[in-house]
Amino acid sequence: MVLAITIGALLAIMLLALARALAGPKVYDRILAMNMFGTKTVLLIAVYGIFTDSPSLVDLSIFYALINFIGVIAVLKFIERVEEYDEVVER
Amino acid sequence: MIVDIISTALFMIGCLLGLTGAWGLLSFPDFYTRVHAASITDTLCAACFVSGLMLQTGWSLVTVKLLMVLLLLWLTSPASSHALVRAAHHAGLRAMTWSFLGDRS
Amino acid sequence: MLCMTALVVVYVRHLFSVVMLFGIYSLLSALIFVVLDAADVAFTEAAVGAGVSTVFMLATLVSTGRQEKAPAHSPLLPLAVVTVTGAALIWGTLDMPHFGDPGNPVHVHVADRYIQESPDEIGIPNMVTSVLASYRGYDTMGEVIVIFTALVGVLSLLGVRERRENPVHRTGERHSRPYPVLQVMALLLIPFILVFALYVQFHGDFGPGGGFQAGVIFAAAIILYTLTFGLDDATALLPVKLICMLAAAGVLLYGGTGVVSMLLGGNYLDYDVLAHDPVHGQHYGILVIELGVGITVSTVMIAIFLALVSRAERPR
Amino acid sequence: MTIGHLPALQVVIPLLAAPVCFLLGRWPRLAWLLASAVAWTTLVIAIGLWLQVREGGTISYAFGGWAPPWGIEYAVDRLNVLVLLIVSGIAAVIFSGSWESVRQEIPESRQALLFTNLLLCLAGLLGITITGDAFNLFVLLEISSLSTYALISLGRDRRALTASFQYLIMGTIGATFILIGVGILYMLTGTLNMADLAHRLGGLQGSRAMHTAYGFLVIGIGLKLAMFPLHLWLPNAYAYAPSVVSAFIAATATKVAVYVMVRYLYTVFGPEFAFSAMYVQWLFIPVGIIAVLFTSIVALFQHDIKRMLAYSSVAQIGYMLVGIGLVNVTGLTGALLHVFNHALMKGALFLALAAICFRIGNPRIENIRGIARQMPWTMAAFVGGGLSLIGVPLTAGFISKWYLILAAVERGWWPVVAVVVIASLIAVIYVWRVVEAAYLHPRPEDAETVAEAPPALLAVTWALVLANVWFGVNPGLVTSLASGAAEALFGGYLP
Question: Where are the domains of chain A?
Fold first, then answer.
């Protein structure tokens, strides 16, 4: 029961974040949404792993947290690099 | 028993916080307000979930790993929010001002 | 959600957004693997799909354009092909054995033997690793060589410059916006990531993990370093030549294990002969080849990343 | 002890030589020497395997010591030993003659990379041929395709990049189709070993999933072998790749794909399913005939000789498909012989072209006017290869066409006989265009005089030309191998 509610809530959050990621409108909004999506995925996997008694999934969620962070940093860095050349800020 | 209740409560708080944040992310008017909504709730939400889980597992290696998840989220999530806002600010993305809000209403 | 993301990816023209949505897409598919209880696959999907390939695509985008060109010809033909393919797949899978049915041919033939016998024959708890590294070890060697081939391909296309010709000239420009917070964060995180990579590398016998995943995590640490401190510092830390040599060494380590087992009288990649006791031999063999996999995967990822970034940083 | 390991060594040696070659980046000449030595070693191993197969029948090698359905098996029989011989032989000849041409066309920093790629490609192709495991085949296919993309992109012309990209997209789609097919087969049977698959699929006749897997595999392999409507990637890829690479790929890659098709149709699915239930001949015959006629005609209108030969390759693949589609032992023998002979003739022709490119640069017809007086040996080699391509008696090309015609007559399909003859006549025309330009036109006044090609390149070209003649005069060795393989593949099945 608790599991169902928790996972349902997390999925709902992910859906909302996905909506923001799809809607944009700026690149930064998408990154923000991606970040939130990522952290919630981490939590989801941790919750799922503990409740289904497969604690090895927790390793996975540690890893996801790392990847998520690096992904966000990479996006930022590259956007910055691009903007040095042209002013693609809008959109 | 009590542990169960506490962890359930923590989960519920976590869900609530997470949903609030996501709702804010979706419905706030501009980027900076969205960051505000998302990043602040994110930290506590993660804390609630992970501590709830730690109560469930009891004391073992998994608890340590969960603690690592929590630390990692606590470190990375604000850092990336910070970098994000900074980048947006440098790129010249302007915050929505009150006067502008007033204009719209 | 998966379908929705995929559809939007097709429609959105701004390529940065596409890449980000791809990241979400692979997180979602990784979740599916989690639910299917395939933790190893989820691990790889997250590492490669959400992590490394996102970063690679971004790095590529920097040196190409950010906007997709309008399609030159009508999308009708590809659409028709895709529809027919999809229909054929659905039609064909309708009378497939039911999912999860224990009587499936998949469960009663080869896989069954792996599950029954691998504890005795190989003696490590994670069966994925025993199949990957021993029963089908030659395939895994093939995959490692595929990755190595990718490196050779990227190098033949791009090439990596060893050092910037005139580092002083560019420094000011490059560090126009340093992120002190991020640099501190990176310094805090990188040792942790490296330890985690080692853990995943040597824990592959017991839990999900192994050379592939560990290699990617290790590469992720270096990528993070490059992102926060810049290309010059990274190549000073790890010269490209060294990385390339290590990539080849990893392949040779894997292949060499096979040669050694051949010299000791077994078949190629037969680890039984590596020690007096077959089970120990299997242990050693798997340990060594996983190390080879890890070295090759991480160095190839780093080398490709550096190649892409050095290409992107080239002034136009 | 070594004898027993030959099947593994056949692939593992080039596979492990590749990283060593990669480490030799600073010394391209050493890399070339290594690559050539390895290629000759694989040829020796292939001959060893052939001798073994001739004496003792099928050889099986279990990787990791796990018995076949559980581990990965290499299985060598008369069918794939034929392909092994031709691939390693061509590689040995081309690699050893490649140095001068590569040194001229490729910047020095990438020469070692080119040889690394060549070795990887060779290993992949040999592995595809020798393996007895459906998934292992896919892995090796990836190795060979990836290295091929890289090889093509090394071409001097910037259009090589586009060509490589086009091939990459098509090739990846093909590989995905193959992977889906193999995946469905695994779901159906729970095994990946080809012999085991064949055994278990026997009980599944009529299953829809099996039909789907079959369709995906045929289309996927069809993309790889440039089956007629799916051939669009091929002309550009061959035309813009470095000359040596065109020669190697044209002589081997599609041949191996044809082998894979034959292997799946006959060994995995069985001729009964392929021909009596799925009627694959009604796909192959029309597709093959259209390919032969249409692309031969397209070849007529090409100005770039490399492109012309590339289109002619698609036509030759059409012959092979027709041979398979005739569904009799003679037809299959003809197809297999054509795999072998086409490798010889295209190898010779593309090497002659490499020699021409070496001196002239752009191999367009108008550029080679009157070249025959200045490069007599090269042009003579080209004529030799061309004669074999046409199918003139006493050349290898004649033998395989003769078998195809025999097979068509055996079935009473006279139109097919007519098609083979007409297409050969068209081949006469397009080879003649080159010959006319080179021999009958005077060298333009403003053109610089060119010298004969470097001796090493010339030597290997002539080695292949002489092989064409040798196998045309003494076809017994190969025909007995091919017909033995064809009989074994058909088993007791008669249409």
Answer: 2-90
